[in-house]
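This entry is set out below.
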Amino acid sequence: MTPLPLPVDHVAFGSRDLDRAQDALARLGLSHTPVGRAHWPNEDGPHRARTLSVMLPDGYLDVIELPAAGSDLEPTGVVLRAEGLAPTRERLLADGIRCGEPYTIVRSFEGAAPDQRYRIFGVASRHPNGLPMSVIETAEAEPMQNRTPHTADVACLADAARLLGVEL
């Protein structure tokens, strides 16, 4: 399949243990945002998880604690950026691309107000790198969306981990 005509917003990572993920990131020399909490709906009811972001020169990685993750840090999806979620979803559906229903992710950090809210939907297609894709609305300026991430950041992180002998 041809890649969707949307830029990458960020790459999502899952971690079975966010504390161990923080240790692995520190060994790689990467700093991150304070640990926050995110919640969103799923088929089994509301999902809540600890989360943090790794700021890179050209973007960021979002790390979410998922006990079912296969390691302390593994890529779980590519999040594409759209201005206007509804028209983007309608265009993708018209092009024959299956899309899930939009939902809201709420993210909070201790001492920071107000909560950050993101509208997002999943896409049935996979990114050319094989990861699942979703689309996030970026109509409102968010502090972490001031940069344009590149999927090369993921390869760079993996190479650095391999060189340093850090399990991702």
Q: What stands out?
A: The CA atoms of residues 57 and 147 lie 8 Å apart. DSSP finds three helices and eight strands in the chain.
